[in-house]
Amino acid sequence: MSGAQPAPAPAPLRLSERIVYPESPRWRDGALWFSDVHDHAVKRTTADGCVHTVVGVPGRPAGLGFLPDGRLLIASALDRCLWTWDGEALTQVADLSGMTRGFLNDMVVDGAGRAFVGDTGFNLMAGEEPRPGQVILAAEVPRTREFRTRVVTRDVVFPNGAAVSPDGHTYWVAETAAHRVSRFRVTADGDLVDRCTFAELPDMPDGLCLDETGALWVALLRQGEFRRIGADGTTTDVVSADGRLAVACTLGGHDRRTLFLCSAATTMADLARGVSNGLIHTLTAASGAGWP
């Protein structure tokens, strides 16, 4: 990391509260969609800050992404399944429990509708000893709507927030327990190869998002801040979560330059019991969204 001082950031504005623990935010159809993990529901919030429940997910929602036809794809942590929500029905489309060692975690869906789903490998909140996780590729067969799944990379240390480039050729993932973000090349078949370290970090990275310049905004969980890390791996901006856990972030809004910051007033011990007070703030970013 460069020794240059990051640019000062304006204070973010509070958008929404009365949330338990917001994760995996995604901008779609004029609203911010997110998993309220410990309330076991997918929710969305609009520009007025009102929070609406979209659908309950008993298996605890984690990663979210939208398929090309507009259906919402949901990874559920505890039962380790993939579900779709079409606005009316929650439908299980894949059972990944036989492939996983930990919980399903964050997820990103590329422009072709392929989902890259993180398997944590171990239960961090229960204090289990770390063991390698993996990334699972789930791709729908158009004519049958059957999801085919396979592991596309192993030895990822607690995969968490993820992003994919607009051309679908590059994939980034936060390795939370290793304090780093890694980058992979995505092959035509969806394999993740040519791994390298994009950034070494002083704390546990959680959610992240990509902007149009190739920089990442990364939430540093316990350090309670959001960092923008340029394509060269240097930190350019830092935004404080004001004493809260920094959980996840995404770019959205009408011009895709609104940075949505998800945080939670809780402790790691309380969070293990599902006790948390989640908030969503916003600020205007210098660079807009990349993908998704």
UniProtKB/TrEMBL annotation:
Cofactor annotation remark: Binds 1 divalent metal cation per subunit.
Q: Which residues are recorded as binding substrate?
A: 105
The SMP-30/Gluconolactonase/LRE-like region domain covers which part of the protein? 22-264
Report residues binding a divalent metal cation. 23, 160, 206
What residues sit in the active site? 206 (proton donor/acceptor)
Query: Which SUPFAM superfamilies does the UniProt record give?
Result: Calcium-dependent phosphotriesterase
Question: Molecular function terms in GO for this entry?
Answer: hydrolase activity; metal ion binding
Q: Which InterPro entries match?
A: 6-blade_b-propeller_TolB-like (IPR011042), SGL (IPR013658), SMP-30 (IPR005511), SMP-30/CGR1_Lactonase (IPR051262)
Q: Report keywords, A-Z.
A: Hydrolase, Metal-binding, Zinc
Q: Which cofactor does it need?
A: Zn(2+)
Among its keywords, does the record have Zinc? Answer: yes
The similarity annotation says: Belongs to the SMP-30/CGR1 family.
Instruction: From the Swiss-Prot or TrEMBL record, give the protein name.
Output: SMP-30/gluconolactonase/LRE family protein
State the species of origin: Streptomyces luteolifulvus
> Which classification does the entry list for the species?
Bacteria, Bacillati, Actinomycetota, Actinomycetes, Kitasatosporales
